[in-house]
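Recall from the previous chapter that SMILES is a line notation for molecules. Here it describes flavin-adenine dinucleotide.
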Amino acid sequence: MLDTTMKNQLKAYLEKLTKPVELIATLDDSAKSAEIKELLAEIAELSEKVTFREDNTLPERKPSFLITNPGSHSGPRFAGSPLGHEFTSLVLALLQTGGHPSKETQALLDQIRQLDDDLHFETYYSLSCHNCPDVVQALNLMAILNPRISHTAIDGGVFQNEIQDRNVMGVPAVFLNGKEFGQGRMSLAEIVSKVDVNADKRTADELNKRDAYEVLIVGSGPAGAAAAIYSARKGIRTALLGERFGGQVLDTVDIENYISVPKTEGSKLAGAESARQRIRYRRYRQPERQQTDPCQRRRRPAHYSDRLWRRAEVAQHYHRDRRTLA
Ligand SMILES: Cc1cc2nc3c(=O)[nH]c(=O)nc-3n(C[C@H](O)[C@H](O)[C@H](O)COP(=O)(O)OP(=O)(O)OC[C@H]3O[C@@H](n4cnc5c(N)ncnc54)[C@H](O)[C@@H]3O)c2cc1C
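With both inputs in hand, we obtain:
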């Protein structure tokens, strides 16, 4: 299954494991099951810390396999093939199950560990989907960190009957406890904020302690970002509300003919937008500029709007004079 280069690379990664990892496969006599068996056996050969066994009695999709630690039954599961764009997700799941730390913030990791609901996620992906690995990796990490969370990443090409039965129109498509949860690219923070019901209250309490905003912009895509820039540059205390900063541009790899940008990628453009806003805002904060520019409205001290750039995506509780829908 894996060529020599891939094996060498994976072997080097698996040297980072600090805890043993067990791969438990649930297989049938299909060709896909034989493929998965061969792949898992090859992976297990690359590290003494990885073992592989079959348990075909489990009430799980076939073929599928759980990535866990010996003696445990929790962790991420792949149903179908974890190759194509999902190979990175497989490698990360192996590493993180084996004790390699995630690069997410400690606060977010702690929030995931403290979730006290039983959350069973299923994600449908395709091997050619660019947006799927982020979602699969986020949910895999949640399943690794918290035993009350499970995640099965399902290859829609292998389980086409489920794609039809559940009317999946695009991938990634995520189901939580059997119900539709979301579709398209989602970050770990977005997923956690959606399932952590207490987080809304915590955020609302934090926001209620703040002074009132003068303008609330609903929607944090390019239009919302532009509205926020031109509001904040006039010294108006501005808040930007949205689930994710970047809007639709995050849903595509190729962005072409965006004004003055012949070709870029969605995630790069969203990153560039947020960086540009910070730069522009700092420019307009300079006191000498404020005094000489007659257009500058300085109703409130400059630091009021500064919070916007530290937290572009905020919750619902605002007092406001104006609203903009973008
Ligand atoms: C696959 C794809 C490829 C594309 N390729 C190109 C391209 O090559 N070149 C190009 O110029 N354009 C391209 N576009 C179009 C471009 O992404 C959009 O024109 C642009 O994102 C529109 O910006 P917007 O801010 O108006 O809306 P959006 O980007 O849609 O942002 C609106 C935001 O508002 C949020 N929102 C909506 N309702 C609420 C609510 N009630 N509360 C809070 N938030 C809410 C949404 O979640 C979203 O984040 C592409 C779009 C897609 C999907």
